[in-house]
Amino acid sequence: MLDVCLLGTGGMMPLPHRWLSSLLLRYNGRMILIDCGEGTQIPMKMTGWGFKTLDAILFTHYHADHVAGLPGLLLTIGNSGREEPLSLMGPPGLKKVVEGMTVISPDLPYELRLVELSDIENTKTGMGSIEIKSIPVDHSLPCLSYSIELPRAGKFDVERAKQLGIPKNYWNSLQQGVIITLEGKTVSPEMVLGETRKGIKVCYCTDTRPTEGLVEFIKDSDLFICEGMYGDEDNLQKAVQKKHMMFSEAGLLAKQGRVNEFWLTHYSPSIREPDEYLENVRTLFTNALAGKDMLTKTFKYAD
After folding, report:
1. How far apart are alpha carbons 24 and 49 in whole angstroms?
2. Model pLDDT for residues 191-247, shown as the tens digit of each residue
């Protein structure tokens, strides 16, 4: 199962009632953070999930409201006793940004591993049993949207394994996708697994205009989290100019992508009550929520 916590939902600046947009995901006790604006470590602390098991921080882009919280968080992670490497991922320019910001968080007790993801085409990388995919979107800086996926192998065929004479102590390895050698013969997982089953897919998209590629990218996701910078339709021209999205435009993406559930995030500071504009989304996509700080949900495999 995958735990998802929307740490903050604000755009531009943190407010007394709203932290900046950030998403924390947890699987088997390990965590991934998407974006780290000013103060992100505070709602992260409020989750009670800790800091030491954070494996990666993914950045959508390098505007301050998405990265300015990094030095403080890195120091907090160091104080948690972490010694294993931490991966930082983002669009081109990551190295320059991290070098500049870590001037005030030097001598960390763990290594930072920087991974610059392509801003040209879909990128896929692995982290244990989790797949991280990214796609470039349309903002004023190079910007990526992310998909976090837990693939699920087919059901283990016990009878087939017995017919092949595979001892039980090898079954778990095959279920995990490991190729084994048995009495000089290679046994691949496909030989004892059924058809691939539906996994879990969570997509996160912020600071962009709607793009054609996003529809296919978010397709059939269990949860789609997307920016709604402006709720009032009168702000459409402002959204186009600043390369952000309207509530209604995000809702249309959710509909076109046939997602299961949709949360809005990254509101303009001028929006006090996002729920007031939620009908602009629900006329297009019913299963929608105006995300609020610390909104948390656990996603389980379908069967």
Report:
1. 10
2. 888 888 889 999 999 999 999 899 999 999 999 999 999 999 999 999 999 999 999
Query: Active-site residue among 65, 207, 222, 293?
Result: 65
Distance between CA atoms of residues 95 and 137, nearest Å:
20
**Is 65 designated active site?**
yes
Q: What is the DSSP string of 51-110?
A: STTEEEEE-S--SHHHHTTHHHHHHHHHHTT--S-EEEEESTTHHHHHHHHGGGS-S-SS
Model pTM?
0.90
166 backbone φψ class: left, alpha, beta (φ>0; ψ -120 to 50) = beta
Highest mean pLDDT range out of 19-33, 106-120, 164-178?
A: 19-33
**Domains of the chain and any CATH numbers:** 2-153+196-299 (3.60.15.10), 154-195 (no CATH)
Strands (E), the chain: 2-8, 22-27, 30-34, 54-58, 86-90, 112-116, 123-127, 130-136, 144-152, 180-182, 185-187, 197-205, 223-227, 262-265, 288-290, 295-299
Six-digit token pair at 70?
A: 């990094």
Q: How confident is the model at residue 110 (pLDDT cuts 50, 70, 90)?
A: very high
Q: Which residue has the tokens 């290679």?
A: 186
Sequence length of the chain is: 303
Give yes or no for a contact between 25 and 39, defined as CB atoms under 8 angstroms apart: no
The residues with which 182 forms a beta bridge, in sequence order, are: 185
Residue 239: predicted pLDDT: 94
The residue among 270, 275, 274, 230 whose CA lies nearest residue 250 is 230
